[in-house]
Specification:
Blueprint lengths: L2 E5 L12 H14 L3 E4 L11 H14 L4 E5 L5 H13 L4 E4 L9 H14 L4 E5 L9 H10 L3 E6 L4 H12 L6 E4 L5 H7 L3 E3 L7 H12 L3 H14 L2 H4 L3 H11 L17 H15 L1
Parallel strand pairs: 1-2, 1-8, 2-3, 3-4, 4-5, 5-6, 6-7, 7-8
Helix pairs in contact: 2-3, 3-4, 5-6, 8-9, 9-12, 11-12
């Protein structure tokens, strides 16, 4: 798995029920656009606001819909046994990868984090993508990532949602250098090109929900060694990523942008998240106009 992977939003109706037709439509759009992977129950998908049963239902529906891309399922929780249950479920339905962020809320040392991931890896066979998102949960250090990757063959890669070129560089040199098949993805749109330049494998980026053509243009230009074109599109992505700073949450930023671009997914977030108002929407409209025309 390499390239552009999309962490899906979860579409909701006004009564907060899951909007299955909108999910179907969005997955179809992304596959037609040519993305390389689709990731359900992601941070952008508000997984912490979903019940275990809803997460399983969404995972099953996603497996039915995703037919021409790699299929990833988020299985993170602060309960290790719950993660094992969800990861086994992802394995049983035929997902290609499980994506697992560290436990959140409870501060853990590296030995506790190692044991958490080791228990999951030993109880399942599905390839696991670690998810480093230190702004929301316990951070994963380079030595810990390397230890997990070298001791568990089914720990297959990492999503790095960290605003540090040096950290990503060190993961690529220290971990991928030791284990060539270990995949390194950025979780930040603005770091897509430099992650590829450093030797990474792609990105799992939320703005690809509403502008996958830009991410795919970066990827294609880089693969074809059209570096001036890659720079141009990367600058667009860097500017587009400012959308996150305009809103109160990832979900609000992405769903407002999708609404402005004509997607049928409703601008509805599940509590405790709230949608931002007209002032934020206008700021996002202006940004989209400047970048996408």
């Amino acid at each position: 798995m390499r390239g552009v992977i999309v962490p899906l939003v979860t579409p909701f109706n006004e009564d907060y029920s899951i909007d299955v037709p909108a999910l179907d439509e969005h997955v179809g759009f992304l596959q037609k656009a040519g993305v390389h992977g689709i990731f359900i129950n992601a941070t952008t998908g508000e997984f912490t606001s979903l019940s275990i049963e809803e997460r399983k239902i969404l995972a099953e529906k996603g497996r039915e819909l995703v037919t021409s891309a790699f299929y990833l399922v988020g299985t993170a929780s602060s309960n290790t046994f719950e993660v094992i249950e969800l990861t086994k479920h992802a394995q049983d339905i035929g997902a290609d990868y499980a994506v697992i962020a560290p436990p959140y809320y409870c501060p853990l040392n590296e030995e506790a984090l190692f044991r958490h991931y080791s228990m999951i890896a030993e109880k399942t066979d599905i390839p696991i993508i670690l998810y480093n998102i230190p702004s929301c949960t316990n951070p994963l250090s380079v030595p810990l990532i390397k230890r997990l990757a070298t001791e568990h063959s089914n720990i297959a890669g990492i999503k790095e949602t960290i605003d540090s070129v040096n950290h990503v560089r060190d993961v690529i040199i220290e971990v991928k250098g030791e284990r060539e098949d270990f995949r390194v993805f950025t979780g930040l749109d603005q770091h897509f090109l430099n992650t590829l330049i450093l030797g990474g494998d792609g990105g799992i980026m939320a703005c690809a929900n509403f502008a996958p053509e830009v991410h795919l243009a970066v990827w294609k230009a880089f693969q074809e060694k059209r570096y001036e074109d890659a720079f141009e599109y990367a600058r667009k992505l860097a500017k587009l990523s400012k959308v996150y700073s305009l809103a109160s949450s990832f979900g609000s930023a992405i769903k407002l942008a999708m609404s402005l671009r004509g997607f049928s997914i409703k601008p509805v977030l599940r509590p405790p998240y709230v949608m931002d108002g007209e002032e934020t929407k206008e700021e996002i409209r202006k940004l989209l106009g400047e970048v996408l025309g």
